[in-house]
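FW: tagging you since you asked about this chain on Friday. Here's the raw sequence from the shared folder, copied in full. Didn't touch anything.
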Amino acid sequence: MFSALFRRAAPAAYALPAGTRAYAIGDVHGRRDLLKELLARIDAERARDPRPDEHLILLGDLIDRGPESRGVLDLLLDRQAADPSLTILGGNHESMLVAMLDGNLQDLESWLHFGGEECALSYGLDPLALLAQPAAAAALLGAAIPETHVALLRSLPDSARVGDVLFVHAGIRPGVALDAQDHHDLRWIRSPFLRSTADHGVLVVHGHTVVGDPEVHPNRIAIDTGASATGRLTALCLDGAERRFLATGA
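HL: got it, structure written out here
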């Protein structure tokens, strides 16, 4: 009896409402081929067994590292026009490119080193030329990247919520109300969020930190399986109370 009084309550088992299904896709990083394959599998499932309320959410880091940043954005712009269930979140790599376009070039070399080189090449730019002319880099990027792509990059939200599930690129700051989260944390945070065992009041589904296999914790699910390097792009399907994964190469 007394042990029951002091027993710690189990974390809430968050689920979506009945009839609601959400697919969340982890960090694509320029792998248009993998994204196209995974979307085809999702579309086939939806067509075979539809739900009244469908959601398709990309968790950001669409660009950099892989060879087809431009192709990924072209694919998603076409998808966005045809699929009202689609939500595309922004990640830290989108933030870095927008900063470059805005002339904040102090991190130009860092961006190129961490995947921007492949992004620049996908738009027909020479990364060495950007480094050689840093003062002109913003103008060169702006001239090479279509206006529709720039508009998409600037419009990406930091998070999306479906029922009691929060979808975000990097994570949240533990102990901070969901409506008071900082933009930078949502796209960049690691250790304070990853170490936390707190019940955040929602289940957080995120990418940003590469894991060998999807990780399921009571308060979060991590699905960035390093697509650009591993060839494994992972999606989480939340279907009411059911959870399962789809992945390329699996």
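FW: Residues 15-89+158-247 form a domain with the Purple Acid Phosphatase; chain A, domain 2 fold (CATH 3.60.21.10).
HL: agreed, and The first strand starts at residue 20 and ends at 25.
FW: great, closing this out.
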